[in-house]
Amino acid sequence: MFGLAVRFTLKDEESAAGFDALVAETLPRIRENEPGTLVYAVHTVEGKPLERVFYELYRDRAAFDAHEEQPHVQRFLQARGQYLDSTEVDFLNLADAKGVTG
Description:
By secondary structure, the chain is α+β, with helices and mostly antiparallel strands. Helix content is 38%, strand content 37%. It has one domain (2-92): 2-Layer Sandwich (Alpha-Beta Plaits), CATH 3.30.70. Strands 2-3-1-4 form a 4-stranded antiparallel beta sheet. Residues 2-94 form the ABM domain. Keywords: Monooxygenase, Oxidoreductase. It comes from Halostreptopolyspora alba.
């Protein structure tokens, strides 16, 4: 399995609203069209209203690559920059888990 954790810091409250709307538009398409995307979880951060954390888990690197090529993901990647102050990405290798099988 292949995964990543992404921390987005948004510019301001207006940007947070725009970013959240973009996510709300994108996530249903990920659910419907990406069988290799096992987990795509979007989190708000308690006490940090301008931060969002994504946890993504894919069947393998090829499933991640297929995710990145989807039109809805390309749109998200192109549109998100207007809302962001910063982005941190950590690529993860699953060592062990409960509730996830590979």
